[in-house]
Fold each of these.
Amino acid sequence: MPVNARSWLAAYAIKAPDVQVQQLQLDSRKVGAGDVFLAIPGVQQHGSQFIDKAFAQGAALVLTDNGSYADERIMVVPQLNQILPQLVSAFYQQPATQLQLVGITGTNGKSSIAFFINQLAELLATNAAVIGTLGYGYYQKLTTLPNTTPHFVDLQRILAEFVSSDVKLAAMEVSSHALVQQRVAGLHFNVAVFTNLTRDHLDYHGTMAEYGAAKALLFKPELSQAAVINVSDEFGRALAAQCVNPLFVYGKAEDCNGFERYLAYSDVVPMVNGYQVRLSSHLGEFSLQLPLLGEFNIQNVLAAIGALYLLGQPLNTLIAAAAQLKAVPGRMEQFIFPQQFTAVIDYAHTPDALQQALQSLRMHCASRLWCVFGCGGDRDRGKRPLMGQLAELFADHIIVTADNPRSEDIVAICEEIAAGMSPDASYQIEPDRKAAIKLALASAQPGDIVLVAGKGHETVQIIGAEVRQYDERAYLQQLVAEMSL
């Protein structure tokens, strides 16, 4: 709904024309008729360079933090960056206060936990939505996003959309980049969830210590009210020890000892399509038959249950509902072939995630375990030989291929991965990703599992400067159909 600019900005002692405005925009390319363009410092350029373009596209007003302008439509507010989170929240009528907000951080599992929270809430008759890597909205009908965690200007707009759609709960991935760059400024989460900390994004953070410190920001009282923390993770245990917010922990049974509120698992029995698990908690013992692959998904589900428990849902009801959960697209997602072998697509693109995926699938694998994967170009090169080493250690046969090579040579990346393997490792290099998948499937026998790792839900592949359409899930579905003829 349109907002009167003069009324909106008067509370901040900013004089504005008496006009109706539509949306707030950080990107001049997205400005539409009647919008307010926020010309603030960006990562590389200052937004003031694009004021003329914003007006050409129909902007009604511009807010910026420096310069001198004769145009009354341009308001210069020197302290704009400091007050912008409050300005934006007021523009969208404080949507965060009308929702239960769950923020999820950690290296792996964020998308899955957000989806499981959405599914569990739906099973308990609560309208919910997600924001994250896969997009935003209802988990089965998402709108794509350029970043895992949008800027707070876009977040407030999204949250306002949720409120207008009668959403009551939003589960949101909060990346380490977003925390350092203050993209969640102005939000206060009802619950903050921590999954784990493993090697990733060191090209940005520099060290694991800095990476961990970024994740820990979410658990400060200024950003969240309560915490759900994985104490089977080393960093998680340290985080729980210093957490001042009300705490709920989850993890393996032996790791949860000594905590007041917890949900722990033990006695894991693998089945063809999931697990039988014993759960213990401060409220008693439970049994769960979970229809998901990957032991890490047990932890992801416990995190989702913990978040909803802290929001007031009964623990026993949540555990019962968890038996109906479905896999997240591109996260340990199964494709059953008529030749009696299975392909599994997973987003695993870090050493820890690849190891966990392979170890988990080994528990379900009756025969040989295949691994098809690559590493992205122009990113952390140090993880390449490590991932090759782990693939050799936990898979029977490996096909090294392209991921998103970007500006790097595909074969050179593959060779850096292979450098981590021993000379007698059972591997080969096939630079074409589709050909690599076909090669593994053509070689697979009944009882085999083929893990195709790294792309997961993604629908493009970046080769050089070209962004090619590439949907691995659709490709596997096509191969299942072809091999069923």
Amino acid sequence: MLVIWLDAADHASTAGTVGLAVVGVAFIALSPILEVTDAPISGWYRDLAVPGLADLPLDRAALGLGVLLFLTTAANVVVRQALEATGPQVLATEKTLRGGRLLGPLERWLVFGFAVSGQVGAIAVVVAAKGILRFPEISQDSKDGMRAEYVLVGSFVSWALALVLVPLF
């Protein structure tokens, strides 16, 4: 997640991204033998007067915040790369369908939140609402179907990114 996030901030250094990925994997591999004590922020977190956070451990709260930040910014980069991989003619449709960069994170938050809370029916409502909102644009699509392909590829990748993180919780 961190690698994609940093890639979103700076596309210039592939070697740096690969190096950061190697360091991240090394930390994960060594985590069972690393000595981790109480984090400096844990006292502040324990003293927060937020009832909903009283039973939530600091590491789970930090993970949740990281996932939300990933679904906000870096996931847009992943969706864009998937659209670029489908071909330039599909990406050219972006000029007329620009709402995805704002609606995408909101949609991912909803899908993720509903999935974590077990509300599968609510996810179906989000998917249906997306279809209803995009129907006028897609129905005016030319015979090549590029708008429909753009919306489908972007939506499926976006939803997959939100759902793949659910097992962490």
